[in-house]
Write a structure and sequence with these properties.
23 helices, single chain, 0% strand
Length: 534
């Protein structure tokens, strides 16, 4: 096999010709081919997005470039085709990269973490300059930041209170909705709109740049979690970060989940490494971005308690008979650690709220998600099913099914927190299960919500069959929304084609040609390894 970046000496890479040779060898490798496929896909998504993405209602830049035709008629159809080809190319590149990482399909596993991290940069670079893809949330973020900038309280009024170019591009369903995000995210939005003003393009790019620290934290923390959870670092990075569902939605779609998930993973990693207070501070910052991160806090208390028991047991085993080495009653230990954790959390959150000059009104704004109705949430599925077998309309039963599922969610969260407390791995598994329950049982769900549990699941040792299921699920979720942010779940053929693509992607993780489209199969040969120059 051709040499990879990890087999080259420092002397080689220090010389320009050596760097060129290393890059050329990488591009000839299976992972290099996958990287180029994904890059081509990202470029097509970016260019297609100018016509068929979540575009502005009026785009002076396209008009000045005489490209407004991309948004209408045949131009719109061409743009849509480019986007879907790009998405499929990124999925194909991701699956091929998965085979190279796992060593399936006749390949040997030679991919390194540094190569995967480099591919992340290659794939997201074109997306940094795309219009918002598969969602219009970026425009809401900017409008909410402008509210705080202009002296309004985003927890009291919606973007409609502040007319202007930013409001013009907000999805109508959110114009009157107050902000459901934490104070630190509002501060970021205010800072961006102070710098970019009413310039939507500059504001969107700035939002993406603000999300990049979350991506960097994921690239560090997700592989690091495998040290405690038993997984393989390269597989974890491939599954949780290079996943098109994550990159296209969280970077291309500009969602604050990118920051929240990155902070969450970093907080868990810090607590697992016994930096408990630092971990609580980081998760508090995550909650101040988006409230969902707070689900992890009770489980981090369990991990802290486990570490405290181990520390005191080690001191007793070493012959320390002082009172400070004795194991206190579990209830007292829990009260002390939980109190300290909540105190640190509250201090960070109060400080963030004071800086933003807002209260905690965002908690009541969380109910705004009820405006979203789609098949990805169990309450909606139940409501639709009832309308099929009864004369009731969905509006008559949706509130009931949502209430039932909310009660079930509270029960599941309480049970999960109490059940998963005996070890570090159990506690992290509990956080993951809690996130899955929230996604499924909440009043509304969107495809990128699955990035929450996926980031933690990737840290565990997963069988090939489980990875195939996750690949299929992520592919399906990536394909069931339209590039402009509309829902494709109510179109039979759209859903059917998404299912077909998901099955092919899942099978392709194990087999190079699952549909047997090749008339003849060439024998798999094992390429020779080219030694590095001394």
């Amino acid at each position: 096999m051709t040499e990879t970046l990890s087999t080259v000496t420092t002397a080689d890479t220090a010389h320009p010709r050596g760097r060129v040779r290393v890059a050329a060898d990488f591009l000839r490798s299976p992972e290099g081919h996958a990287a180029l496929l994904g890059l081509a896909g990202a470029v097509l998504i970016t260019f297609g997005g100018f016509g068929a993405g979540s575009v502005r209602k009026r785009d002076p830049l396209l008009e000045a470039a005489h490209l407004s035709w991309l948004r209408f008629g045949h131009g719109y159809a061409l743009s849509t085709i480019l986007i879907w080809i790009g998405v499929l190319l990124m999925i194909t590149g991701w699956v091929r990269l998965g085979r190279a990482t796992l060593g399936t399909g006749g390949a040997r596993s030679t991919v390194t973490l540094n190569e995967l991290r480099a591919i992340v940069g290659i794939w997201i670079f074109p997306l940094l300059f795309a219009v918002p893809m598969f969602s219009r949330d970026a425009y809401s973020y900017l409008a909410q930041g402008a509210l705080l900038r202009d002296g309004f309280d985003p927890y009291q009024v919606g973007p409609v209170a502040n007319p202007g170019v930013l409001l013009d591009n907000v999805s109508p369903v959110w114009t009157t909705t107050t902000a459901p995000y934490g104070p630190i995210f509002l501060l970021l939005g205010r800072a961006i709109t102070m710098l970019t003003g009413e310039n939507v393009i500059a504001g969107t790019i700035a939002l993406r740049l603000v999300m990049l620290p979350g991506l960097a934290l994921m690239m560090w923390a997700v592989p690091y979690l495998t040290k405690h959870l038993g997984g393989k670092p390269t597989v974890a990075l491939w599954l949780a970060v290079l996943n098109p569902l994550v990159l296209i939605h969280l970077i291309g779609g500009v969602h604050n989940e990118m920051l929240m998930v990155g902070l969450l993973c970093a907080a868990i990693a810090l607590v697992l490494e016994r930096h408990h207070v630092a971990g609580i501070v980081v998760v508090a910052i995550g909650v101040a971005i988006k409230a969902t991160a707070g689900v992890a806090l009770p489980f981090l208390v369990w991990i802290w308690m486990i570490h405290e028991r181990e520390r005191r047991a080690a001191r007793i085993a070493a012959g320390d008979d002082s009172e400070s080495a004795e194991l206190p009653h579990p209830t007292l230990m829990f009260a002390k650690i939980a109190g300290l954790g909540l105190g640190v959390f509250a201090l960070v959150f109060v400080a963030a709220s004071a800086l933003a000059g807002v209260g905690i009104g965002w908690l009541t704004a969380l109910s705004g998600s009820k405006k979203i109705i789609n098949w990805l949430s169990l309450p909606t599925v139940m409501a639709h099913a009832l309308t099929w077998v009864s004369p009731l309309q969905i509006g008559q039963v949706l509130d009931i099914t949502r209430l039932l599922c909310m009660l079930a969610l509270v029960a599941v969260l309480a049970w999960t927190w109490w059940r998963f407390k005996e070890s570090e791995r159990e506690a992290v598994a509990g956080i993951m299960i809690a996130f899955v329950a929230i996604v499924i049982l909440s009043p509304a769900a969107l495809p990128w919500y699955y990035s929450w549990p996926l980031a933690l699941a990737a840290g565990f040792a997963l069988s090939l069959g489980t990875l195939q299921v996750l690949v299929g699920l992520c592919t399906w979720l990536m394909l069931v929304f339209q590039p402009d942010g509309s829902i494709g779940l109510y179109n039979f053929w759209h859903v059917a084609l998404a299912i077909f693509a998901a099955v092919v992607a899942a099978l392709s993780l194990r087999t190079v040609d699952p549909l047997r489209l090749r008339s003849t199969r060439s024998p798999v040969t094992t390429p020779t390894v080219v030694p590095a120059r001394s």
